[in-house]
Design a protein that fits this description.
The longest helix has 24 residues, at 162-185. The chain is α/β, with parallel strands linked by helices. It contains six helices and ten strands; from the N terminus they run βαβαβαβαβαββαβββ. α1 (12-21) packs parallel to α6 and α5 crosses α6 (162-185). It has a seven-stranded mixed beta sheet, sandwiched between helices. A three-stranded antiparallel beta sheet has the order 8-9-10. It is 34% helix and 25% strand. The chain starts with a strand and ends with a strand. It binds 5-O-phosphono-beta-D-ribofuranosylamine. 5-O-phosphono-beta-D-ribofuranosylamine binds next to α1, β5 and α6. Catalyzes the transfer of a formyl group from 10-formyltetrahydrofolate to 5-phospho-ribosyl-glycinamide (GAR), producing 5-phospho-ribosyl-N-formylglycinamide (FGAR) and tetrahydrofolate. The record marks 144 as: Raises pKa of active site His. GO terms for molecular function: phosphoribosylglycinamide formyltransferase activity.
């Protein structure tokens, strides 16, 4: 399978996937990395790994629809089997999401359905939660609301700050995302309506 990664920032999840994909038995190939921010470090990481990159700068479009149409066209040139959002910080339109239905995964730094949106680590601390984590889900039309495929938990200690929690969560992200992408490439995970099937059975 052909994997296309979209990122906006530092690209540590991209890096984890690049490393996983170097393993001899990895079932997929990263064919391109797309970005909405020129100069993002994720682009550098891709280039270092010899992966093709493209940038569709959202500031050059006057509507979300126009940006998404341009992004989708750029993506389709690579004919991907799976689109992996790895810190891609744009809200996507319904048309865009529909075009990639069942083929697009996102990673979100919370135990969904808790804490959709931004600043999840601080919100977890403010709420006094003792459990936090990361979720990987299919992207559907609701923001951070698509069916969850897998989660990893981290404990929140009294001494944790948003920064230490972010570190703990990211450590789990870098383990979990490559595993889930491997499963997807092996054909083990499918979106069936609003349900995730794993090896053909509902999760
Ligand atoms: C991750 O924490 C991910 O959960 C969130 O954005 C961050 C991306 O980090 N959606 P990186 O660019 O992979 O380092």
């Amino acid at each position: 399978p052909r994997i296309l990664v979209l990122a906006s920032g530092s690209g540590t999840n991209l890096q984890a996937l690049i490393e996983a994909a170097r393993e001899r038995d990895f079932p997929g190939q990263i064919v391109a990395v797309g970005c909405n921010r020129p100069g993002a470090f994720a682009l550098e990481r891709a280039a270092q790994a010899g992966i093709e990159t493209f940038t569709v700068d959202h500031t050059g479009y006057d509507s979300r629809e126009a940006f998404d149409a341009a992004l989708l066209a750029a993506i389709m040139k690579f004919n991907p089997d799976v689109v992996v959002l790895a810190g891609f910080m744009r809200i996507l339109t319904a048309d865009f999401v529909r075009a990639l239905k069942g083929k697009m995964l996102n990673i979100h730094p919370s135990l969904l359905p808790r804490y959709t949106g931004l600043n999840t680590h601080q919100r977890v601390i403010d709420a006094g939660d003792t459990l936090h984590g990361v979720s990987i889900h299919f992207v559907t039309e609701d923001l951070d609301g698509g069916p969850v495929i897998a989660q990893a938990e981290v404990r929140v200690d009294p001494s944790d700050t948003a920064a230490t929690l972010a570190e703990k969560v990211q450590r789990q992200e870098h383990i979990l995302y490559p595993v889930v992408i491997r499963w997807f490439c092996e054909g083990r995970i499918q979106l069936d309506g609003h349900q995730v099937l794993f090896d053909g059975a509902a999760l």
